[in-house]
Amino acid sequence: GVSYSGVSDRCTNETQSMSFEVIVAAPTVTPSFTASVSPDSVSVEQGDSASLTVSVTRDGGFNGAISADVSGLPEGVTASLDAIDGAADEAELRVVASNSAAAGTSTLTLTLSGSGVEPQTLPIQLTVTERPDFDFELDTDSLTVYHGQSAGPVGVTVLRKGGFSGDVTLEVEGLPDPVTASVTSPGAGDQGEIRFTAQQDTAKGEFELTIRASSSELGDKTESFTLTLLPPPALFLLADPFLSGAPGSAPSVVLDIERVSWQGEVELVVSEAPAGLTVTIDPAVTSRDRAEVTVG
Fold this sequence. Notes:
mainly beta; four-stranded antiparallel beta sheet; four-stranded mixed beta sheet; rod-shaped
């Protein structure tokens, strides 16, 4: 209370004393908190993670737990943050990007909430970068090589990602003897090629090979390749070399057609027939393996 004295009464001209109490109310304090995140922008490579620190400052007697939620995450990215209990003032926010996470920049929103207090939102800029990697492709997955000949080239294109600029070397696995492969590796470039050579005594058939592209930094990639080995294309006509008949008759002979390493139509033509003889072939153009030669 507060006492005052020396108050004069005008009627009696006497000084009197009186006391009264002044009550001053304390200001109202609202529980609250503020928050910050450090850093507020982060870059994460595909297949990697990053950590950020979330700090809170409590006010007005607030000592409750604070929960967290992150929105705006791009595909393939996850974020985790444990609740901040009443005795703590910071926590770790962990951002994880999968190997297939979409590359690019996005803005995340971190929302912090507690019981009886206003929630706080914080923006975080996230950049997902491509992981250095490579792949390769062949311009064909099969090739035919004839005995005693060479074939190719088979073109090889290196597909680089995430800024990868290292050397890439090529190797052919599974070659049958005595087939050889002449390889031009891409190195630090994007193009390479492979040529195949088969000797005369090479086996005949289809062979499954493996084309391997290697990087000392990133490991190996492989592609399957089918190599077909055949004798050189050839055509053989087989028939009885002797043909006889009585005057006025039209003797005939069967002509066998043998194809080696190819299929298709054959046009049969007679040249230098003796005078007075007419030679016909039926059919004259055929994709079959037999025709008939008639002399009239």
